[in-house]
Amino acid sequence: MANQVKKYGFVIDPRRCIDCRACLVACRAENNVPLDNTRIWVYDQGVVGEFPNLTQQFVPYNCMHCDNPPCVAACPSQATYKRKADGIVVIDQDACIGCGLCLPACPYHVRFVNTQTGKADKCDACVQRVAQGEAPACVATCIGGSRLFGDLNDPLSEVSIALAQAKTIKQLPAVGVDTGPNLYYINDPVDEQQLAVTAPHMPASEAIYQKLIIPGILAAVGTMFLGQAVAFAKQLRKGESEYDE
Amino acid sequence: MSDEILSLAERKRLRAKKIKKHGLANILTHWFNVASWVILLSTGLALLANPNLRIMPQGYIDFFSHLFGGVGQLVQAHKVFGLIWLFVISYNVLLGFRRYFVPFARKRMLLTSDDLSWFREYGKKLLGLKYHLPPQDAYNAGQKAFGYVVILGTVTIGLTGLIMTFAYLLPLELRGIVQWLRPLHFLAVGGIVTGLVIHVYMAAFFPEEKSAFFSMFNGDVDALYARLHHKKWYEDKLKEERAYELKVRLEELEAREAETPETEKQATA
Amino acid sequence: MTEIVQLSRRNFLKLSGATLAAAGLASMGVKVAWAQENGLTYDTIVPTLCEQCVWRCGVLAKVKDGKIHKLDGNPANAHSNGKLCARGQSGIMTTYDPDRITTPLIRVGARGEGKFRRASWDEALDLVAQNMLDIKQKYGAEAMIFSSTHNLSQPLFENLLYGFGSPNYGTQRSLCFNAMVVAHLMTYGLEEPGRDYTNVKYIIYTGRNMAEAISTSETASLMDSLAKGVHVVVLDPRFTKTASKATEWLPIKPGTDLAFHLALINVIMTNQLYNVEFVEKNTIGFEELAQAIGPYTPEWAAPLTGIDAATIDRIAREFATAGREAMAHPGWRTSNFVNSFQAERAIAILNALVGNWGNTLIAAGGEGGGIPLGKPTQPPYPRITAQRLDGVPWKYPLVPLKIGVFQEIRDNVLTGRPYQAHGWFIARQNPIDSLPDRAKTIEAFSKLDFIVTVSILPNDTEWYADVILPESSYLERYDPLLVLGNKAFLRQPVVEPIGDTHSALWIHKHLGERLGLADYFQYTDEVNYINQQLAPLGLTVDDIRLKGYYEAPHQPSEVAAEPEYKFNTPTGKIEIASETLRKAGQPAVPAWQEPPEPASGKFYLLTGKVGQHTQFATQNNQWLHQLHPDNPLWIHPQAAAERGLADGDIVTVRSDVGEVQTAVSVTEGIRPDCVWMTQGFGKLSLGLKTAYGLGASDSDLHVTVTDPVSGGQALSQTFVTVEKA
């Protein structure tokens, strides 16, 4: 987006994550997320190796606020959109019709249907906090300093500095689509296979809707309209004598 | 339309004569339905904003979005108007279910052999062939067919809309059906709109149906129109009329008899 | 705040400028997108203090419509630095726990049956006072035991205890850090040295699980240090989350920390790698240790610890090279074996050898001191002559009175020696779960005539109580001020208390008055108490309410070029050799003590914390429960295979004192001779609807073993068998 002044994004250093999951609770409280759901995750990748040569990686994870978000493309009611001013991908809860099409559309599986509202839900980078100049709840409370958030367009922001100093940088590529994720893993390579990143998926119902039903109805209405137009033209030519003789 | 030839005098007489076709409730329901359709169709089309679903141009979508103060409010408005529409229509149908709707469905909506031949003959007409349209009841076969589309479509639109509006109350496993309800909702609307193109054209532009158009305001059609277009119904009406006249006359007779003074009766006896 | 109000007004104008239709919809209660995006999610912010553990982070509580909406860490508090852990974040659900006790309860069924009736505060407090006074009259004040876990209202609790005249003071400390505290008292003359990570280059954690036993600011310091490249060695038989972050993890054999540290000292001393100047100036007894350390070579320690000699030698040299920038962390829950006291002494001496005092180890742990606070006047306590039931000092001469040997009280309740106890007043503590050998605790309870508890939840101890006095949660009450550095922090109510609950300040005062101890509670209410604390500063609660703390003017401390250290030990120096210990019949310098080992076929039962729970208190918190619902037993794949166990299988775990059934978690992350579980599960109280029936209690298994020097309960000295259930 050319006129996008800010470009908010996350930078995550898995080495600094201690899997305390304070972020999960902070997010739950801040955003009233029901107990059945969560907007963010910490993936415990499990103990790897044989005793005593072991490693274990904890990967904080949430919406990537993509440059080219497949969820926005999948949303039939434009409830999901990318904010022009700062690039945060949000859901207008009033506009959301709860169809759930955005869930499989997201290659990162960060979306869910909120069990209380019945609407699509996901990380919105705590826009209400960001509007007040606060960091998102997960970032603000991250004890290990693993989660960072800020304006990627600002070279002096915490995230830009972290990226500039990072030993390694990795974005999670989606399958078959260039999403342009704005979540960067630094210093500790993460494995997108293990994080089960997929291609965006469209359910059959939607394919039938888009490919068959809409063109079909348009054709039917169009044919009728054309027929009537011909009849009307004939009527105009013949005049209205038939009835009012 | 019947192709029988009537004398000019007869035409004039019939044209002046009015036959009641629609009650006030019917008229009000129809125009309420029209208004609701205008609102719901225009907002509904504006909701199809996704490029993969879009039918109307971006300007149209932006206009409605701004008019309602955002997509969210547009959705809410569509839902609220839809619920009002659904409530009023269902209420009216239920209110007059036994007195009006059941007899209507039984007498007016059942397809007869005449209806089937009407389709055949009307097809010939459209193709420019020689045709002979059979006499029709209060509604001709085409209107009946549209009626079915409307009834079926309205039920579908109402049910799918209702479920989608309150989908958040569904158990989690069932929420996925919304993905099927949307195409169904659209399909039902599309079906009705297809019919509506003819319905609106016939009513608003087609000269032969002028009388029917005005009947949706004052409830009456002229007898000539009825005789020409809905002969069966017209004849029924005539029968009803005669029966009524007969009844009135009999009653008058009885009344006169009752008025005869007692003494006179005794005297006759 | 003005800024915030303006923002919302601007948004409101935007709304009124919307179309008629939109306004109509808005008036119908339809939410508006921009309000969701830009609107405030709270009405006010109330600064207060966390009490989800004892670390006391600063909290900024956001309140919406009279309900707590969100807790943020307070950047002004050095313990939180703007952050809260999962437990701190979940404080909301401690307040809104549906199982909370909302009125005083008086037992109606048999004890342990869980049948109570609601009562008024007057009735409950009258009943408690009457029972306590009856016991005092019949058996003497010492027949009442008082116990409470470290909290801000402790001074008022102590007023009850000492004013009443009982010597029997139970704290949680002997179940936790007695070894560390007593060892550092004997060596440095202070209970616990503070840690400063600013300049640290090399850290050895001996069992300190910083990533799971979280102390917010210190855990953050560790993670910052690791990112800076600090070398971190973690000694732990279990692959903890701290171990997974460490530079190296050494799965040391349980009970041999002492051997490891003795070997480090050996390498440093025999190779003259120590800080000669610091040692000469600030320590005493170096020569004595030098003579005794000879046999404790890395080669000697290797077979004991399971860590090869070369590694021990390397770590010793690296540690010494880091010198003043090295830190051997004193640990926290250090009472693991009867030799843990000696291990802690070795750690204290290791630090002294590299002279890191004043750099990575510092005097102030943080709390207390600093600001001269007032307090209500009170008379001196009555003279108490009765012996303590926990054996201090007549059986444990080196254990400080304020710390005590909590687990010993039960034995004396059961034997009736030196005298029979008859009542127990328990405040903010859960001894049924926290003491080892739960069956023994329950048996001891049965010997008592009267048990009263002060609690928020109907936890396991409340289940066995006669009267329960419901306390307000920490987000609904005042407590005395907390002094931290040059700031005095206020705990103040964020919301109105749920039900008929009160603060400890209120409960202790009203009970004290009924016990004839009104002179010890000379304040009208909570605010009045804190006002009396603030009086010397010329302040009132209202002056500090908004910020949540008072900050003393910063006084530039004069740093001498050559700092002269004075330690609060008999010699004024760091005591490498302790005459106090020698007099008590203990080795004056650390010496190897062979720890007991499990018999063949048995495991060390290890217990420890997870980052989502605090001891025995938070298992019923619904948000924390969601993160960590139970406590499977960790077992090594090899040990599991020998027993035909697969992940998730239910096993019977048996110790000398009890058995439990629980699921196993098969993992490479533990020594094959150990099993591990976290504490606090296996609840008995049906009042805990969220936590009841989940997991197993380690307290059912723990054998009571007391370290004769520090009085600490040796929590790893329980050996168990594990077999498929």
List the helices and strands and how they pair.
The complex is a heterotrimer of chains A (245), B (269) and C (725).
Chain A: E1 8-12, H1 22-31, E2 41-50, E3 53-61, H2 70-74, E4 80-82, E5 89-91, H3 102-105, E6 112-113, E7 120-121, H4 127-131, H5 137-141, E8 147-151, H6 158-165, E9 169-170, E10 183-186, H7 204-238
Parallel strand pairs in A: 1-10
Antiparallel strand pairs in A: 1-8, 2-3, 4-5, 6-7, 9-10
Chain B: H1 8-16, E1 18-20, H2 24-47, H3 58-67, H4 71-95, H5 97-109, H6 113-126, H7 141-165, H8 178-204, H9 210-218, E2 220-222, H10 223-229, H11 231-259, H12 262-268
Antiparallel strand pairs in B: 1-2
Helix pairs in contact in B: 1-10, 2-3, 2-4, 2-9, 4-5, 4-7, 7-8, 10-11
Chain C: H1 2-16, H2 20-27, H3 33-38, E1 44-49, E2 58-64, E3 67-73, H4 86-89, H5 91-95, E4 105-107, E5 116-118, H6 121-139, E6 144-148, H7 154-164, E7 169-170, H8 178-187, E8 194-195, E9 202-206, H9 216-228, E10 231-235, H10 241-245, E11 248-250, H11 257-270, H12 276-282, E12 283-284, H13 286-292, H14 298-305, H15 309-322, E13 326-329, H16 340-354, E14 361-362, H17 408-415, E15 423-427, H18 431-434, H19 438-446, E16 450-455, H20 460-463, E17 467-470, E18 479-484, E19 487-491, H21 504-514, H22 526-534, H23 541-544, E20 549-551, E21 574-575, H24 579-583, E22 603-608, H25 622-627, E23 633-635, H26 637-642, E24 650-654, E25 659-666, E26 674-678, E27 719-724
Helix pairs in contact in C: 6-21, 7-21, 8-16, 11-14, 11-15, 11-16, 14-15, 17-19
